[in-house]
Structures are given as structure tokens and as C-alpha cells.
Amino acid sequence: MLRVTFLGTGGSVPTPKRNPSAILVNREGELMLFDCGEGTQQQMMRAKTGMGNLTSIFITHFHADHILGIPGLIQTMNFNGRTEPLKIYGPHWVEEFVKMMLAIGFYKLKYEIQAIELHPGDRVDRGEYYIDAIKTEHSVPSIGYALVEADRPGRFDRDKATELGVPPGPLFKRLHKGEDVEVNGKTIKSSDVVGPLRPGRKIVFSGDTRPCSGVFVASDKADLLIHDSTLANDMVDWANESMHSTAGEAASLASLANVHQLVLTHVSSRYSDDTSQLLEDALQEFENVCVAEELMVIEIPYRDD
User: Where do the domains of the chain lie, and which CATH numbers do they carry?
Assistant: First the structure.
């Protein structure tokens, strides 16, 4: 399972219809937050995602609309009896941020919070997947993130294995894992019955940024790109000045990077009641695109299954 829940899809100013930035990824039961604007914990409750399996929070930058939900979420998990450590990743100043946050009046926490500073090019290796920090271009130090799963074994040809004399059972499993086996004095190679490696899934989250090479390179053939699209195309000058992206710019990047699906987020409050212009601008550049809505859920399948 790889599921993305959009907990906060608005820009800097929250509206009755959109909360500040927060994206929750559920990978095989492990929860990871990408940014955590105010109201995130309530959105998690509304979405019934749970909090107990949250292992990490990945911060893109330290503007208030991306971090103010963290103190309340930490406190709620503490009241709920959490004991497992929580990792908070982010760009420069993440360690200072965590220290200040913990010094302003929490009840005694029953669990450890670990702050880890990341720079573009750094990788968080989790074995079955990794998360890369991406260089982005915003008005303060910022990074985006790419969650990339490891390659999967190729397809196992049961009929071919049987033809070669391999009995069904443990030897099938060993072959599929890449091991050669011996049957009646004959070596059967894994490559004889297992196809080429198949790619895992990839999700890219840009955070707040201008369109840039860091996000473009990381997004190559991504299953899902979640990109800043604060403004419509007719406000490109303001997008440049504020270091955000227009919907059309995000869609153009997605098209050039051969992305499978694009979701536009960080929607300015000026479009809170009507995002049709954002969608129209994006569709001129890229077909498989939508504007994120609060509590929207996307399941990411394997493309070749």
C-alpha cells in the first residue's frame, strides 16, 4: 500500500475550505508527514489516519504555514501514550527549531524527538525505500523530497521453472529471490526463470518553490508529483516575486519530466472558492492533473501490476 492523504492544500492564508500545507503518506502502515501546518492533527482525526504509526515529519522550510501544526500534534501523541521516538527532518535550522519548540512549555514528553538536518543530495535510507532531499528555490532555505521505493524482483515464470525440473515449493522462493539452485545435479539459474527487476514507486513533493532543475530531475518518471501551484498563469510576475509556481509552470515541468500524475497544491486563498482557472492553465500543458482538495486520498499502484 502506498496512500497519499492531502490534509492541508492551501497557501499561506488558511480559508474555511483549505488548511495550510500538510501531506500524509502511508506506506505499508508506516505514516510520514510532509509539512505540518496548523490544524494538521484535526485533519488526521477527520481522515481517520491514526497517529500512532507516525515515524517522521519532513519539513520543507520554516515558514509558519508549514510548521505550526507540529507542537499540537506532538502534545496530542504524548497524551495518547506514545513512547516511540519521532524523527523531524528539515533544512538548516531544524535542530534549533526543535529545541525552541520543546522549550516553550510542553508537558513532560514520554518519547524522544530527534532533529535531523538535511541538505540537497542527502538521502534517508530505509532499506525498502529511501527519501532524497531535493534542491528547491524559495525565499528562505528550502528543500523538497522524493520518496523512492527499491526495485522489486522480476516476474517469476512458474511454467519455465517446472519445465526445467524445479519442484514447486522452497526452491521457487529461492529462485525468485535471486539465488541459483541445484536440481538433480543441474544448476538452475535465477535469471533463467525470473524477469528483469521492476521499479518501485516514486512520489515527489516540491514544497514551496519556483520550477527548478532539482525538482525536475527528481521527478523523472515519478508516479506522483505534488507541486506548488499557488497562482494562475496570469499572475506569473507575482509568482516570480514570491518564489512560488503557477499551475501552468508546474504542469509544464510534469510534462517534461514524464510524470504519470500531477497534483496541484498550496492553492492561494484567492482561488479557495473556484480553482477552475488553475486547472485550465495546467491542462494546457499536461493531461493527468488535478487540483488537490482537503482530505483527498490517492492510492499509488505499481504501474506494471
Answer: 2-152+199-299 (3.60.15.10), 158-193 (no CATH)
